[in-house]
Amino acid sequence: MKKEKIILTGDRPTGKLHIGHYVGSLRRRVELQNSGLYDKIFIFEADGQALTDNIDNPEKVRQNVIEVALDYLAVGLDPAKSTIFIQSQIPELCELTFYYMDMVTVSRLQRNPTVKTEIQMRNFETSIPVGFFTYPISQAADITAFKATTVPAGEDQEPMLEQAREIVRRFNHIYGDTLVEPEILLPDNAACLRLPGTDGKTKMSKSLGNCIYLSDSADEVEKKVKSMYTDPTHIKVSDPGKLEGNTVFTYLDAFCKPEHFGRYLPDYASLDELKAHYTRGGLGDMKVKKFLAAIMQEELDPIRNRRKEFAKDIPAVYDMLKKGCETARETAARTLDEVRRAMKINYFDDDALIAEQAKRFAEE
Ligand code: TRP
Fold first, then answer.
1. In this structure, are residues 6 and 150 in contact, taking their beta carbons and an 8 Å threshold?
2. pLDDT value at 1 more than 60
3. How far is the CA of 97 from the centre of ligand 1 (A)?
4. Residue 219 alpha carbon to ligand 1 centre in Å
């Protein structure tokens, strides 16, 4: 049988999704979904993972589950083509995690660069919740329960995929070929790998207040683009400007397509030409920001409008999630069955085992 191509990816529902999520992963997911190249697509909300550092604030996760579901539908994820589900509703994932925990050492987890950074970011120092510390293992369960071959995600997820592959190799080595090694699918555009916040800080984060959300109104988007960080030494229009670290240009790299010039800035033929003029001097920040705002509105308008439409029937969105959970659970349960059989912990449907033990005791 030809190996199936299966996509799985997800997000922690700790906030509404922003354009960093969009260019880093969501936009690509929709393209992949509509490409017809994949046999199955699973998109999920990692609410269990979100709780690993929000256990005292479950309401935040609860509120954001529906926000993220709306963001998914708004960008064009389609429950007819993709199974959209919620992690905590799939108990099989916990069981898989339980077994995988025996295949990973504490020192291996301590070396995970993403976990290291996150521990620093959260000032956890020594008071790390065990569940947080071990979330790479639970993430390996998320991925392998669905036999995912392809995980579209940002660069920061690379260490998680490496951990998942190690578990798969170890499992298959001990118990025979059962699990599938996943691969990450990174954005192909460098600007999309890690879109900076509007203040030019490395990451878009809710607490820094530097995000543009998919649900932001047109006015909010306009305001945020106009106040974006550029080149602080570019003071007069005639001054030469720098592109590195210039958020407006990074965003243009992520959003601008050649056809946008004809529509919004016909004096220039390409982004290279615009950049050359900016570097030379004589091009003001506001003109570039207006261009960026026009492009972003064009991309975000339909998303915002679809979001509003879906928000009119919230019970239908929960129903969609519930159906997704049912489908996802069937798949995860099938994998878990194979895992139990491979590990020989399927005592009650192993007739050979029962017969063998009966014989052993009869001979004693
Ligand atoms: N760790 C991911 C994030 O923070 C979310 C996630 C959980 C995930 N399980 C996953 C992503 C499995 C891809 C595959 O965004």
1. yes
2. no
3. 14
4. 31
